Amino acid sequence: MSVVIEMVSDLVCPWCWLGKRRIEAAIAMVPEIDVQLLFRPYELDPTVPRQGTDYKEYMRERFGSDVGKERAGAMRQALIDYGAAEDVPYRFEEITRRPNSLDAHRVVHWAQGQQKGAAAKEALFKAFFHDGRDIGDHGVLVDIAGQVELDPSIVADLLATDADEVTVRAEEKFFRELGIGGVPTYIANRQFAAQGAETPEKLARFIQHAATAAA
């Protein structure tokens, strides 16, 4: 039995890092199923300037009210707690820039073409949520590309152009038009969907259901 899982996510979405780890754990729970995991782009806020913006100011604008701050604080603490239990080391205090994630998605797109999509995704999540690096900065992206064994000079040349921007935006548009309004979202064989950073156990059952339906 085989299943293609498309994980729709954004590289500046903290739940998506947790979600990536959980879908990988779920896949390990069902070794009898041949699972291909693909990563698809999604921008939570495509209005962020390409050069990014100050992180604290951005968060103030989004969660400026007392209620908003309380909700954001509770969500952040929940992520830190989940991360501590599942080896996802969030360090939100290190983040100073809120990047536009389009170019980071382009890097994942190129990496995926060389069977390195998961490595690129993990490296970008860690760079942003643990190291506080600006993953909209081309120098940072080139460095991360080298870490996952992409050719840094080729990636630098591609980032200097609009290579594959149309492709990445078209993929994102396709999934938005399917009705996806939040990430992470997992789509199995273009038939079934699960949304949110569900537990590995629930995601494993999701994969099994998709495999059974395919069979």
Task: Write up what this structure looks like.
There is one protein chain. The chain is of the alpha+beta class and 215 residues long. Helix content is 53%, strand content 13%. It has a four-stranded mixed β-sheet with strand order 2-1-5-6, sandwiched between helices. β1, α1 and β2 form a beta-alpha-beta unit. α6 packs antiparallel against α7.
- Beta content: 5-15%
Radius of gyration: 17 Å
Mean pLDDT score:
96
Let me know the largest β-sheet: 4 strands, mixed
Helix content: 40-55%
Q: Shape, please?
A: globular
In the CATH hierarchy, what is the architecture at level 2? Answer: 3-Layer(aba) Sandwich
Task: Tell me the domain tally.
Answer: 1
Identify the CATH homologous superfamily.
Glutaredoxin
Query: What is the terminal-to-terminal distance?
Result: 7 Å
Number of strands: 6
Low-confidence stretches: none
User: Which class do the helix and strand fractions yield?
Assistant: alpha+beta
CATH topology, anyone?
A: Glutaredoxin
What CATH first level would be assigned? Alpha Beta
- The largest beta-sheet arranges its strands as 2-1-5-6
Number of helices: 9
Summarize the helix and strand pattern as letters.
Answer: EHEEHHEHHHHHEEH
